[in-house]
Design a protein that fits this description.
The protein starts with 5 loop residues before the first strand and ends with a strand. It is mainly beta. Strand 14 and strand 15 form a beta hairpin. The strands form four sheets. It has a five-stranded antiparallel β-sheet, with no helix packed on it. It has four domains: 58 residues, OB fold (Dihydrolipoamide Acetyltransferase, E2P); 62 residues, OB fold (Dihydrolipoamide Acetyltransferase, E2P), CATH 2.40.50.140; 68 residues, Nucleic acid-binding proteins (OB fold (Dihydrolipoamide Acetyltransferase, E2P), Beta Barrel), CATH 2.40.50; 67 residues, Orthogonal Bundle (Arc Repressor Mutant, subunit A). Helix 1 packs across helix 3. The longest helix has 18 residues.
Length: 278
Amino acid sequence: MRLGEYETLTIVKKVEFGVYLAREGDDAERVLLPKAQVPEDAAVGGTLRVFLYRDSKDRMIATCREPKLTLGKLALLRVVQVEKIGAFLNWGLEKDLFLPYKEMGGGKVAVGDEVLVTLYVDKSGRLCASRRRLYECLSTDSPYQKGDAVHGRVYEFGHDFGTFVAVDDRYSAMIPRSEDTSDLKVGDVIEARVTAVKEDGKLDITRRENRETQMDVDAEKVLKVIGEYAGVLPFNDKASPERIMREMQMSKAAFKRAVGHLYKARMIEITEKGIRLL
């Protein structure tokens, strides 16, 4: 019998506190369905569709209730309690679902938050929630194409790759690392635009506008930063991508487009060591 999944089992024994269930023809492994959930017409030999999990004493137990999440699937669950070791989520069963601290994906949670999680079995054989494992559960068959507007939920920051997002809480997507996402945190819901659909179906997305509109936005940002430097920026578009990202919160390519736009409009002068406001 597998935790975290539904099983159709046969009633093999009735007792005062419930019924014992087993797979048909094999009653070596039995699981208890508590009396409060046993249907009135239940009889030995009959079958019941139940969900298997562990009770407060870590015993495998059956329930006729339907949890909001099953093994390997995704669900948006509400945080009902937060402790140092993790958080507890309401998933529709008597015992709340534990979200270990190490499975939070780098983002803190608070009571009342709704978090997108998957369900897995930990090394101790207990069912737990995880945000860190969402990547392997997200679908890659989205209906979206390049240029489409989408909504997504940030679930992890992979600094070597980018920011991972679950589009529609279902599809795998990523904002590339060249785009500044320092204002985001795990759990944030964002609006974005699809920039590419990869061969494996995963989406590349951006929060930036189309190139012309974004160039105007970036140009305004460059002017603002030059003003903060008293009209003379101490570096130009030949600076390293790291310095440009640190100072401007934009990629080097976006910075160069914005600077070129301002130069053609005769609003700045580019020198060997920097950029001066005209």
